Amino acid sequence: MTDPPRPRACVTGWPVAHSRSPLIHGHWLRTYGIEGSYERVATPPGEFKRFAATIGVGGLRGANVTVPHKLEAFAECDRRTSVAQAMGAVNTLWREGEVLWGDNTDAGGFLGSLDEEAPGWRREVHSAVILGAGGASRAVVYGLLSAGLQRITIINRSIERAEAVAEAFGSRLFISAWSEASNRLGDADILVNTTSLGMNGQDQLRIDISNLKADAIVADLVYVPLETSLIRDARRLGHRTVGGLGMLLHQAAPGFERWFGIRPSVTPELRSLIEADILGHGARSS
Ligand code: ATR
């Protein structure tokens, strides 16, 4: 009898060379002594269906999905978790029997990073201002609504996209114009930047945060650079701050658990490993 194939998982995207997921999952495979692997698989546009058919074959337990395939991954799934259904996008795939399942772990990843880096926030945070209205914004909105927030204001350069997010997520959502951003901060318990502003190679995020309440939390999903000017300014003003790296690390954990059977921990060692990689590739954007 032949041995069953070793468990494998991968990240797929186009391009995929920039992905840090192999570093994260490789660290966990070593930490837990699992004889498996996690690779990068480049899937060109138009090829996603073919890629999806390989899941469940030859030890491939599942995959993370990144740009530009998250919508197609959603469409390709037979079943989806309720959060993936609400996002309309899938970043984590696995097969149960013949059934291809999809999840979206970004919302949970964001909440995990807040739990780790701003403990107690669930009791204190009732209202949020969120900059941006893309996929990352939707994940943050979903997560914060599920945590019970009463009021979330979306502020985006193009107001139509802010309106679309507000319509999708219901009565606790409000919108405001980009030019009004600073004036909207006064009653927010948390400010979250979900735009790409502040990322290496992009324009800076220019926002006056002096109207924030003294105990407001400031979070930025950008993690290259590790400390954005928003986070630096907020820290100087005495706010609790949450950078974007925690979300990247926490969103990876549910996939690893599904594929390899162990819920992995986000440890200081893992954080240092990824920080070192980011510092070593200063010019790379993600
Ligand atoms: P993601 O899935 O990571 O959220 P996205 O859907 O491309 O990516 O969304 C990018 C976000 O950054 C959007 O909110 C975008 O604003 P628009 O909807 O107006 O495009 C925002 N963004 C990107 N560049 C920006 C800039 N120069 N000024 C203001 N907002 C910007």
Which features characterize this protein?
11 helices; globular; binds 2'-monophosphoadenosine-5'-diphosphate; Rossmann fold; 2 domains; six-stranded mixed beta sheet; alpha/beta; 286 residues; six-stranded parallel beta sheet
Task: Give the gist of this structure.
This protein has 286 residues and is an alpha/beta fold. The protein is built from 11 helices and 12 strands.
Description:
The protein is of the alpha/beta class and 286 residues long. The chain has two domains: 8-104 and 251-281, Rossmann fold (3-Layer(aba) Sandwich), CATH 3.40.50; 108-243, Rossmann fold. The protein has helices at 21-31, 48-53, 70-76, 82-87, 106-117, 121-124, 135-146, 159-169, 229-236, 245-260, 268-280, and strands at residues 8-13, 37-42, 60-65, 79-80, 92-96, 99-103, 127-131, 151-156, 173-177, 190-193, 217-220, 240-242. The strands form two sheets. Strands 2-1-3-5-6-4 form a six-stranded mixed β-sheet, with helices on both faces. Strands 9-8-7-10-11-12 form a six-stranded parallel β-sheet, with helices on both faces. β8, α8 (159-169) and β9 form a beta-alpha-beta unit. It is globular, with a radius of gyration of 19 Å. Residues 132-137, 156-158, 161, 194-197, 203 line the site of 2'-monophosphoadenosine-5'-diphosphate.
Give a list of the ligands. Answer: 2'-monophosphoadenosine-5'-diphosphate
**What integer is the average pLDDT?**
96
Distance between the termini: 44 Å
Percent of sequence in beta strands: 15-25%
What's the total count of β strands?
12
What is the string of helix and strand elements? EHEHEHEHEEHHEHEHEEEHEHH
Query: Would you state the CATH class of the largest domain?
Result: Alpha Beta
Derived from helix and strand composition plus strand pairing, the structural class reads alpha/beta
